[in-house]
Amino acid sequence: MAENHERNEYFEERAGTDEARFHVVPHSDGEWAVKTEGKDEPNDTFGSKSEAVDEAKKMAEEAGTMAIIHDEDGQIEKQHNYQS
Prior knowledge:
By secondary structure, the protein is an alpha+beta fold. The chain contains two helices and five strands; from the N terminus they run αβββαββ.
């Protein structure tokens, strides 16, 4: 439980900042979403995971942050670091 609280604080600290990262996560009805850390609503949803990954990587590269790709169970699968 404490680990979850620490993780939420970590995300809240970065929410709305240049350090906010973009996450590719499973969404409803087999779709995939790109979400900005700390935000409840997705930036966008896609019909395939590869489309969502491409968009998250582009957004992260433009923002100089990270794209974090999750698997179907929500576990982190890959990270793409565009921080300088």
